[in-house]
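Hey, quick one: can you model this chain's 3D structure?
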Amino acid sequence: MSALFARFGRDDCGNFGIMSALLAVPLILAVGVSIDFARAYNRKVDAQSAADSAILAGSTSYTGSSSLSTVASQIDTYLAANAGSDLKRIAGPTVNSDATEICITVQETVATTLMQIVAVNSVPVSVQSCSAIGQTSVEVSLVLDVSSSMREDGRFTPMQKAVQTFLGNFSNNAAAINNSRIAIVPFSSRVNFGMTKTGWLRAYNGSAAVPTRWTTMSSYYGSSSYTLATWVDSTTQYAYTSKPNYYWAGCVEPRADVEVYENGSFSSTATGDAPPSTQGFVAMDTNPGAAGQFSYCPPPIIGLTNDFATLRSAVTKMTSEGSTRLDAGIVAGWYTLSPRWRSAWGGSVPQDYSSKVRKVLIFMTDGEMNVKYGVNSNGASETDKLDWLCSNNKTDSCNTTATKAFLATCEAIKKAGIEIYTVSYGSDADTANLKTCSSGTDYALNASTSNIQTVYDAIAKNLTSGMARLTR
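Sure thing. Here's the predicted structure for all 472 residues.
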């Protein structure tokens, strides 16, 4: 018997099973903790997204301490409708001392699974979200290709309708009217500042800063072949024929062209946003190669405004004429958004770059770069069709030079803090370079006559719904 008990004491065959059983509990618990906390983390990500959307929805209605209860109610309603009944506001909305930021904290209780083994039935998840108070100002420059192909290929009228709808998204929104300004920049082979901005011009090569043709339109186009009309600024005149051809006052040579004509190359100043007080502009009429009928000029630019009646009228009165200089259009769009131009435009806009001001340039074209280099398709000289940019390179490779200027301006605009949407309107548009110019894949859009209104409508809704901005 004693021998039997001694052998039993030495037997360890069951120890492994006992130890495994004892270790299984903490191991299972560790796995359970990992699983439950992973679930909690995923819910925290969802909760943050819901809280961000809720504070953006509520902060736009904040008008002072008395409105905090209204903001809270809007936030709670949004959370209940979009995040589910478990996500609750537990703190806020609170406003910081200088009334520039409003914050909330929301919380959700996430049920556990395996952690219930140790009587932990739920894990609280909380997040904070803050928004700039009120509406963030939005400044938009609509840069619109009005070259002759827009009319000839049937794209002009659908574009006008799309832009009118875009403006309607702002003019029908009371908050957007008060907190947004929109500019319109028609471009073709050049841009037009109109007769209200002749102080931006400089005399050149012995010619007066303001050409006689601009100030004597009635005598210059006095025959019965022409009809005279006035732009929405009530000052700038243009003549047109039944063809139709349009002859505008107010067009200027791109700065890059003038520098190439003078120096053989252009500098970063030419592709930048220097105001006219720093570098004046040269009237198109000064360029003998742009002589002929002076019919390559678009309507004047409308600077930033929330006068939607004027903006709508400008879109209605726009004309289509000339070739396509993408570089001339993009840099002029920057002129309307750059705070360096504020005194030139003579108002309180463009505002300074800041987190409270969203600046957006929407660049639309139906073509690719099309400079005039003084030679036609048969190789014959066309002295009345020469862009100064091609003074030293009278071949179509001059388009490469112009494209470099275009992309250099695009990069400078984005570096300054301006978002760029590009709209490639039709199969002939330079989609590749427009995508490079844009602020990213989501900003490079394609359009046709059948969907251009949808494209502009989507951009407008993004801008008006995103006027409030998250701060943290």
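One thing worth noting: The chain has two domains: 14-132, 137-465.
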